[in-house]
Amino acid sequence: GAVVSQHPSRVICKSGTSVKIECRSLDFQATTMFWYRQFPKKSLMLMATSNEGSKATYEQGVEKDKFLINHASLTLSTLTVTSAHPEDSSFYICSAPREGVGIQYFGAGTRLSVL
Amino acid sequence: LAKTTQPISMDSYEGQEVNITCSHNNIATNDYITWYQQFPSQGPRFIIQGYKTKVTNEVASLFIPADRKSSTLSLPRVSLSDTAVYYCLVVKDSNYQLIWGAGTKLIIKP
Question: Pick from B3, B107, B100: which is nearest to A38 by CA?
């Protein structure tokens, strides 16, 4: 079964609204989680590293005020797309490494469509 | 992080064994090799991970030569449901950060 839960799986919103995506590690704690964006037929692009109890680390070119990341607990990280615009439409995926096992598990992804 | 290179696409037939080779010339001593499978509109799914020689699990085998500059994912007796994109990644044990290449689109035909 899934060890990382991502919700919602799909969201359609109007331009200018904010959308929150949740990523939960189900049976392990994750001090670090990762957020990716994937365009059609392209590979995953790392957006940011979410760190429990501290600020997220953003990759170059990713607007931190646009993509707010909160890692408030050892099992939950959230990505909020603020004031979404059509160009933010994409597939967003989170992942969490299971420490000690050395394997990173991925959520099912969230398809965001901004009208 | 070590960059990986793998074929863009491959075709095979049901029941065949499929081998996908990945090169990672700049792999560091502490790096692991990991393979993921991704279906359209789904998150990647872990297949197998190894450090050297051979690793086998219930779905695949991973062969890594002594110099570790390449690795081969072997899928035994593929079925149509194995049609997916397969990604080879080198993972640093220290921070788990993954750098994704283009992957190999595997198409299995009946």
Answer: B100
Q: In 10 A of CB B25, how many CB atoms?
A: 12
- Better-predicted residue by pLDDT, A89 or B102: A89
Token digits of residue A105: 């598990």
Burial status of residue B91 (CB atoms within 10 A of its CB: 0-12, 13-18, 19 or more): buried
pLDDT above 70 coverage of chain A, percent = 96
Q: Residue A108 class from Cβ within 10 Å (0-12 exposed, 13-18 middle, 19+ buried)?
A: middle
Interfacial B residues in 43-102 facing A (CB < 8 Å):
43-46, 49, 87, 91, 93, 95-102
Question: pLDDT tens digits, residue range B32-91?
Answer: 899 999 999 999 999 999 999 999 999 999 999 999 999 999 999 999 999 999 999 988
Of residues A15 and B32, more confidence is placed in: A15
A29: nearest Cα among A98, A78, A77, A93: A98
Q: Chain A residue closest to B37 (CA)?
A: A106
